[in-house]
Amino acid sequence: MKSTKLFILLGCCFFFVNSLQAQSSNDQCLTAVLVESGAACQDLFNEGTEFTGPQNSCTQDSVGSLWFKYHMAQSGRLKIKTQQDYYLDNTNFNDIVTLYRNSCSNLQSIDCYNNDKYGFVGETVYTDQLNGGDTLWIRISGAQDIFGKCAGKVCIEVDVIGQNEGLPPPEDNCQSAGSLTVNQPCINGTNINATSDWAIPANSPNSSHCVWYTFTPAVASEYSINTHAGFSDVITLWTGDCTSNNTVELASSDEGQVLITPMLTAGQTYYVQLCGAFSTLQGSFCLEVTDSRPVAVNLSAYMEGPWDASASEMTSLLWQFDMLPSGQPYNTAPWNYNGSEGAGWAMSDYPVNTVDWVLVSLRSTTQVADEIDQAAGLLLKDGTVQLLNPMDVSQRFNDAYVVIEHRNHLPIMSPTKVLINNDVLTFDFTLGNSYLGGASGQKPVNGAWMMYAGNVDQSNPSGYEITGSDRIIWGNETGIFNQYRGSDFNLDRDVNGADRILWQANNGIFSNIPK
Q1: Which of 89, 291, 350, 486 is 20–30 Å from 470 (CA)?
Q2: Tens-digit pLDDT profile for residues 406-420
């Protein structure tokens, strides 16, 4: 064991041979350097100094002491900062701050701090109430850990602070956990100045600055815990009652931002612990729990109206002539979809060769009441459906029916559920007919399957059909040019006889997709 320790120490010191500074003289308590509030810090180095004084309680393998002292003029609290920045100064190190009171011959330990166990940002210590007239002894030493340096520069600052500064956040302890509600907007919080609790994740033993939240699922399912954290976070799910002998770790992730839980029991209380680790220990977050996860949806579809048989693709005349709207068009009846996709867009915001907007839905059954999620997307001339964001799908669902609606074509739905594989759903409507349900699905044109044109009147609450009501709307709008109109069935920006030809060919076609 001694030879092992010697090897580590030599390795640590050898790392600094090329940058070794003059040895500091304050490596003993009796030679401690006096520091004062508000004074500019002075760089000192613990390279080559001995470790002196009592062993540290927060780590057992310490080297290189630097001693400081501070005289309390009056009772109060202090903030002690060792002023390090890994990214700006490569002479910093994994430092330990230990506080004592009384005298060098009778040191009484106050506390030991090694929160930044990897030596990226140094230590920031907030003391409890100290008495006026006391002398505070501060020792800074290096930790021989598996990561980081054990010697380097220190630039200590001490400031008098108020009674509330630097206090832990309210959610600092499991027993004072904040409350989360499933599928509600994320809750803003911080783990700055949070303490390390008794429950540390098994897969991340160096976690620190932990805060706690609790939630109770209403449905037995897997859940997504999303932190949106601005620091290197460790997310852990616990169950039990916040006592050391009855709190069980269920799942943990140090990959950041998201933890997918195992199947949870409806009505049971669970605890979410959010800690810092590695390079950035503290910061802000916005925590939420949902029973869904983002699913990428890769779809292809053709529409009959803009189909160009000679090019075997659709036209994009609405985009070419800057006729596309500033925002998705399905925010009115009968769709009443209130998504903000495309809000404020100009022509330059649209992808090249955009045909038009479509409305995409996922359903757990064929019924609209079982809709999982809905989003407006862009149909490109090659048939690609481009969504602006992934769709939210419950952890309970591993497949779904896919529905595509358009403002003047009959809707289409996949004939069966489509598998969600690794959070990706892929389906190509152009390769075959879609859901029939005793009615029409898609129209075959030159070997490709596409949506029927001519359905501008979609006000029927019980179904979709191409009838005389669509012809009436066309008749009222025929002759209107250079506008984004529903009766422009071929999407060329003009309402004219070419649109009536499309309607006439499909008059009487209907769909039984549940509405």
Answers
A1: 350
A2: 999 999 999 999 999
